[in-house]
Design a protein that fits this description.
The protein starts with 14 loop residues before the first helix and ends in a 12-residue tail after the last strand. The chain is α/β, with parallel strands linked by helices. The radius of gyration is 19 Å and the shape is globular. The strands form 3 sheets. The protein has a 7-stranded mixed beta sheet, sandwiched between helices. Strands 6-9 form a two-stranded parallel ribbon. Strands 7-8 form a two-stranded antiparallel ribbon. Helix 3 packs across helix 9 (about 295-310). Helix content is about 30%, strand content about 15%. It has helices at about 15-25, 50-55, 80-85, 125-135, 150-155, 170-185, 215-230, 245-255, 295-310, and strands at about 35-40, 90-95, 145-150, 190-195, 240-245, 265-270, 270-275, 280, 285-290, 325, 330-335. The chain has one domain (about 15-340): Rossmann fold (3-Layer(aba) Sandwich). Strand 10 (about 325) and strand 11 (about 330-335) form a beta hairpin.
Length: about 350
């Protein structure tokens, strides 16, 4: 098994600072963004893959099929559309189920002989290129650009061509490339989410394979930790980056801690039986809808955390750290024009 070297550079915030910070971070002080522009994979896709399937089949098929909800990879609304509703702004969604951080998409294009057009199944880089095509005049400087990607780079998939990575380096570089491209187009405000422990999903928990990291729970968790510890290490300058530590509050959910009034009773199994396509009787008590994706209630937890992170007008600057805020770890980083460390990347 390949060993992952972890980045140990972490900065702990004092309890006094956290108290003061929480006092000023009231959701009533909602930040003003014009729209959310979302990029990522099936955790964020609200129907882009389904639209391709509908077009390819003349409307006779959908993907994922029922009981998945209207092209979402869950049983209801995903986090980013709930966040948009809570902020009272529109969502422009470029996320595609199966997207990697590169140009590849891991969905099986031969699924049910649908004949899906391969060039329409985008990875993160293709999503950013699609944004450029749709907005040739540049990025909306008042928009919030949400990026959540990386899981498909490391997990075993149905792809016949993509080989999962066993180190985070390429994935980190590709996320950085997406951020820099959007920043160079004029984007100023970013919401970047890290990964939950990939070895704690219903489809991966307990797996052991010393030869293949994508099939080994311990290796996947180590890979997740390495990816998360280096995410945003080289963020673009002159941007406002809100970093949301999904890993922390998903782990708290797995520990059955109550967050935002939400507690899950089943945190190891999926509500959906993917063989029989039967659904559990109490999906809101399940953290996971299927082997890799949260239930709508799981997405609601993420949306609440994201709302707390973005509903702040001008939070104080913190550099180089994910700051713990009880429900999980958040960081608001304001990169000034004189930030010498990142100035060469603007």
């Amino acid at each position: 098994m390949i060993k992952i070297r972890l980045n140990s550079k972490k900065i702990a915030a004092t309890s006094g600072f956290l108290t003061a910070f929480l006092m000023i971070c009231s959701p009533a002080m909602a930040a003003v963004f014009s729209k959310i522009y979302a990029f990522g994979d099936s955790l964020t896709d609200t129907g882009n893959i389904n639209q391709i399937v509908q077009t390819a089949t003349g409307g006779f098929a959908s993907f994922p099929p029922p009981p998945y909800d209207n092209g979402r990879f869950s049983n209801g609304s995903v986090w980013v559309e709930t966040l948009a509703d809570k902020l009272g702004i529109d969502l422009v969604n470029f996320a595609y189920g199966g997207a990697t951080t590169g140009i590849e998409n891991t969905l099986d294009t031969t699924f049910n002989n649908l004949g899906l057009p391969t060039d329409s199944l985008l990875g993160l880089q293709g999503e950013v290129a699609a944004f450029q095509s749709q907005f040739p005049g540049g990025a909306d400087a008042n928009g919030l650009y949400a990026i959540w990607a990386g899981g498909n780079d490391f997990l075993s998939t149905d792809s016949t061509s993509f080989q999962p990575f066993d180190t985070p380096d390429t994935s980190l570089n590709q996320v950085e490339s997406a951020l820099n491209t959007l920043a160079n187009l004029g984007a100023k405000n970013f919401l970047v989410l890290n990964l939950p422990d990939l070895g704690k999903l219903p489809s991966t928990i307990g797996l052991v394979d010393t030869q293949d990291c994508s099939l080994d729970a311990v290796c996947l968790n180590n890979l997740t930790a390495s990816f998360n510890s280096q995410l945003l290490a080289s963020a673009p300058s002159n941007t406002n980056i809100i970093a949301l530590d999904v890993n922390s509050f998903v782990n708290k959910a797995i520990a059955k801690e109550t967050q935002f009034g939400i507690t899950f009773e089943n945190v190891t199994n999926s509500c959906l039986n993917e063989t029989t396509f039967t659904v559990c009787s109490n999906p809101d008590q399940y953290l996971f809808w299927d082997g890799k994706h949260p239930t709508a209630q799981g997405h609601l937890l993420i949306a609440e955390a994201a709302f707390q992170a973005t509903a702040v007008p001008e939070p104080m600057t913190i550099l180089g750290s994910w700051v713990a805020l009880g429900f999980g770890t958040l960081m608001q980083r304001q990169f000034g024009k004189n930030n010498s460390k990142n100035s060469d990347q603007s």
